[in-house]
């Protein structure tokens, strides 16, 4: 299936809140929440997308002609590409009944692991969501990253036990999910965490721990103090705070502050292989893409996911060839400009 065919099929079954747009830029879904949009007016999601377009590529084809290698090694695992599928939860609430969290993760995790990348999985109030996600990761040989919401201590401990059984090569917490309105006043409770609380959570597991939802040097230093192995520069896809900066605009300063001591992922509005190249040039170790993978699953199942991976993988390979980098390690800051 071509990606255009995937999107066309997705529009027929993805629900009435997402439009499986040819360009997923946050404008059509706006403040559709529940849905893929944001609380408020959704300006941060749009800003995420537009900020990457303000980073330009420096073309240079005077270099030794060698095969292009897009592979990376992360936490002891080798991947064909430096991008990952992002965590999405409450599938039926935000999209449609074609999939639920369990069936969605079954498709996404297996398809990603079979095609050279890994998927972050989402979390939910229903314990079966994490149970299903970790079973899917276990079946994929541990090639997945379960993402836990910032619940209370007891709930996190229970979910960490599931993570341990899954053999997942890393675990994440999307701490910025504290701002999701549908998590308020729920049981179990979820919310912000102090450095000490986060440190205690990280100590629950020996698995590399990723803190997702960092948007400032101050926040990055707090995650470092808590003992995080990696962070995700993320504003939850622009869904939780209007007026928030774009991830592309804060990435470099965060890399400068903590890039020598932890791995740094980035998400938010990254939609093409060219965008992935830009993020790597600005210092990211890995890139996360979420919403387009939802369209890929709804529009084509495993085949749709494979098609999308191949699409942006080829775009990355072509960008590297046109900018003079034959491996990910050769991508440098001088290959892009603002």
Automatic annotation (TrEMBL):
Catalyzed reactions per annotation: (S)-lactate + O2 = pyruvate + H2O2
Q: Where does glyoxylate bind?
A: 239
Q: Classify the source by domain of life.
A: Bacteria
User: What Gene Ontology molecular-function terms does this entry list?
Assistant: FMN binding; isomerase activity; oxidoreductase activity
InterPro entries tied to this protein: Aldolase_TIM, Alpha-hydoxy_acid_DH_FMN, FMN-dep_DH, FMN_HAD
Q: Does the keyword Isomerase apply?
A: yes
The active site lies at 236
Annotated SUPFAM superfamilies:
FMN-linked oxidoreductases (SSF51395)
Q: Which residues bind FMN?
A: 212, 234, 236, 267-271
Pfam families documented for this protein: FMN_dh
Q: Which cofactor does it need?
A: FMN
Stretches assigned to the FMN hydroxy acid dehydrogenase domain: 47-338
Note the Gene3D superfamilies from the entry.
Aldolase class I
| Family the entry assigns | Belongs to the FMN-dependent alpha-hydroxy acid dehydrogenase family.
For this entry, the protein name equals: L-lactate oxidase
Q: Which organism is it from?
A: Anaerotignum propionicum DSM 1682
Record lineage: Bacteria, Bacillati, Bacillota, Clostridia, Lachnospirales
Q: Which gene encodes it?
A: lldD
């Amino acid at each position: 299936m071509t990606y255009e065919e995937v999107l066309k099929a997705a529009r027929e079954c993805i629900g009435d809140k997402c439009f499986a747009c040819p360009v997923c830029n946050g404008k059509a879904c706006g403040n559709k929440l529940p849905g893929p949009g944001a609380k408020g007016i959704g300006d941060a999601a749009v800003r995420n997308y537009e900020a990457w377009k303000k980073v330009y590529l420096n073309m240079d084809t005077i270099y030794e002609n060698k095969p292009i290698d897009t592979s990376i090694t992360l936490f002891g695992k080798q991947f064909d590409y430096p991008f990952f599928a992002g965590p999405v939860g409450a599938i039926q609430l935000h999209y449609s009944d074609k999939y639920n969290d369990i069936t969605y993760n079954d498709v996404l995790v297996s398809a990603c692991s079979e095609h050279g990348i890994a998927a972050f999985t989402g979390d939910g109030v229903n314990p079966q969501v994490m149970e299903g996600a970790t079973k899917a990761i276990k079946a994929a040989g541990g090639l997945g990253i379960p993402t836990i919401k910032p619940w209370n201590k007891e709930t996190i401990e229970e979910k960490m036990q599931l993570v341990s059984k899954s053999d997942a090569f890393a675990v994440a917490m999307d701490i910025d999910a504290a701002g999701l309105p549908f998590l308020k006043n729920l049981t179990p409770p979820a919310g912000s965490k102090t450095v000490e609380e986060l440190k205690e959570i990280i100590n629950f597991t020996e698995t590399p721990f990723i803190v997702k939802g960092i948007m400032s040097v101050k926040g990055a230093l707090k995650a470092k103090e808590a003992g995080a192995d990696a962070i995700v520069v993320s504003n939850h896809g622009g869904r939780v705070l209007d007026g928030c900066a774009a991830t592309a605009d804060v990435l470099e300063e965060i890399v400068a502050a903590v890039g020598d001591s932890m791995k740094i992922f980035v998400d938010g509005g990254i939609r093409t292989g060219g965008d992935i190249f830009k993020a790597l040039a600005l210092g990211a170790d890995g890139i996360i893409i979420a919403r387009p993978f939802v369209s890929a699953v709804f529009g084509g199942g495993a085949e749709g996911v494979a098609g999308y991976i191949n699409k942006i993988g080829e775009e990355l390979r072509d960008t590297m060839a046109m900018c003079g980098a034959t491996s990910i390690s050769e991508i440098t800051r001088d290959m892009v400009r603002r």
